[in-house]
Amino acid sequence: MFKTTQTPQLRAAAGIRHDTGNFCGTWRLLAEHRPLWARPLCAVPVLLALVLGGESAQAQWATVTNGNVNIQGTLDLNSPSGTNTLTGISAGAVTATSTDAINGAQFHSLSTGLSTVNSNVDGISAWLSTTNTGLGTLSTSTSTSLSTVNNSIDGISAWLSTTNSNLSTLSTTASTGLSTTNSNVAGLSTSTSTGLSTVNSRVDNLSTGLASTNTNLSTLSTSTSTSLSTTNSTVAGLSSSTSTGLSTVNSRVDGLSTGLSTTNSTVASLSTSTSTGLSTVNSRVDGLSTGLSTTNSNVASLSTSTSTGLSTVNSSISSLSTGLSSTNSTVSALSTTVSTVYNNNKYFNANGTGTGAAAQATGSGSLAAGAGSVAQGTRSVAVGEGAQATAAQATAIGSRAVASAANSVALGADSVALEEKTVSIGSAGQERRLTNLGEGVNGTDAANVNQLNRVAAGMNQKIHSVERNANAGIAAALAASSLPQPTQAGKSMVMAGAGYYSGESAVAVGVSKISENGNWVVKASTSVNTRSKPTAGAGVGFQW
Fold first, then answer.
1. Cα distance between residue 544 and residue 111, in whole Å
2. Same structural domain for residues 402 and 481?
3. 473 near 529, Cβ under 8 Å?
4. Distance from C-alpha of 414 to C-alpha of 503, rounded to nearest angstrom
């Protein structure tokens, strides 16, 4: 509305004059010094405070009553120099039926409120977008992690299955090897027994030979003794014959003695003959004594030779005894070793038909065990029939296991490791489970199903919590969207609503206002759900 004043200067500035010179009469609104309208004004003394300015002010007519200006038609404030500003306007009533003008302060307040509402709406929209993105990322990350864990568990299961198979194969191979060792030890025992039997036989032969030697020595001693006895008898006979001869001589000497006187010459001659005979006898006795001395010397030499031979035989027998003692010690040590091997070889055995290809360990520092096994890579290991480790530091354990990549491991029959630094416990179509696996501790440890189940349970709990929160949020949105809206201009409404979705519920309250001219609608609401999550929202709209 336009207020009036009683200031004369403003009347002149506005181009307004009073025909009668008083306040109760006809007032004229002038433009370009021509009267545009003239109406009777009978009211309190007032004067328009409307400064029209410029040289253009057109209206069909206007009246001033009790300080209010009523204009019919169009009020044009343009001038050749441009537009003009209408100031001094008080706050107009904002109702459904109001025709009051709205001043700048009212528009500024409305603009500030709308800016705040828009900022809050933008924040809620950004928060919802971030939440949706986080949920999508969480779902993708969870799915990827679960898939990776499942793959790891499958791989570990297959590896353990291959390990069990390899251990079974190794047990069978060890059993076969021990059986072969036992057979070899039995053969060695038989050979040793045969050799000892031969040695004993030869010792028996030596003993027999020594017995024969002793018999021969005894016979020699007997023959020597007999010969010496014969010689002694002969000497005794000779002595006896000599004694008899001397006795006869003595008798004859006695007989001659009687006839000494008869013939001294005969006695002298007989004495000479007897002396010569005695000399001859003495000579022969001396020769016999020399022969006996030689015989004694030969017997002494024979005794010495026999003693030396016997000493040599005894020395040889002693050496043989020492050798046999060493042999016995060696055989005892061998027996102990064989016994140790026999007692310990029950922990290792191997069995082979002898018809398969020989194991080949051609790589430097490599090891191959099993018929047809091949270890070609440097420091590679191939264990099992047909096992192949063809790359550096590759390990293939199990029948027909193949490790063809560097530092790879193939465990179990028919397992294949084709990539570097990997462990395979099976092959395509022959996968294995890894069982009895302990829980992982370090970052590079494998996890077992129990750990995975706990992770899955925790993840399911979190997902369930997120799901309930989402359901509660949907219930809150339903409650807020269920709030009614005033329909008449200038009306305000306080409202409440409720919502339910998938086991969760929410209540909402709000307030709404429609401007007096019906063009603007402002609404704000808040809600709380069964997850104790509060929400708030506001909105503004313009209709025409």
1. 18
2. no
3. yes
4. 54
- Residue 447 reports pLDDT greater than 70: yes
Check residue 82 and report its DSSP letter.
B
Q: Is 290 found in the same domain as 180?
A: yes
CATH code, domain with 465? 3.30.1300.30
Q: Distance (Å, rounded) from C-alpha 476 to C-alpha 501?
A: 9
Q: What is the model's pLDDT at position 104?
A: 86
Query: Which token pair is 525?
Result: 């609401």
Q: Is 175 helix (H, G, I), strand (E, B) or coil?
A: helix
pLDDT in tens, 280-294: 756 765 775 676 577
Q: Average the pLDDT over each of 43-47, 65-69, 225-229, 461-465 and give the range with the smallest value.
A: 43-47
Task: Indicate whether 123 belongs to any domain.
Answer: no
Rounded to an integer, what is the distance from CA 405 to the centroid of its chain? Answer: 19
d(CA 319, CA 321): 5
Q: What Cα–Cα distance (Å) separates residue 291 from each residue in 169, 243, 288, 294, 299?
A: 92, 21, 5, 5, 12
Q: Which amino acid is at 403?
A: A
Task: Tell me the CA distances in angstroms from 256 to 249, 261, 266, 270, 322, one per residue in order.
Answer: 9, 9, 9, 9, 79
Q: What is the DSSP letter of 4?
A: B
Q: For the residues of 366-421, what is the DSSP string, one character each?
A: -EEESTT-EE-STT-EEESTT-EE-STT-EEESTT-EE-STT-EEESTT-EE-STT
Task: Considering only CA atoms, give the Rg of the chain.
Answer: 73
Token match 């003009």: residue?
84
Domain count, the chain: 4
| Distance in angstroms (rounded) separating the CA atoms of residues 114 and 522 | 9
* Beta pairing, strands 409-411 & 395-397: parallel
State the Cα–Cα distance between residues 423 and 170, nearest whole angstrom: 19
Q: What whole-number distance in Å separates Cα of residue 16 and Cα of residue 50? A: 10
Of 185, 188, 186, 172, which is closest to residue 350 (Cα–Cα)? Answer: 172
pTM, to two decimals: 0.35
Helix axes 264-344, 104-258, angle to 10 degrees: 170
Is pLDDT above 60 for 55? Answer: no
* 171 and 314 share one domain: yes
186/335 same-domain check: yes
What does the alpha-carbon distance between residue 97 and residue 89 come to, in Å, rounded to a whole number? 19
DSSP state of 494: E
Which residues, at least 6 apart from 181, have a Cβ–Cβ distance to it below 8 Å?
341, 345, 348, 349
CB 471 within 8 A of CB 464: no
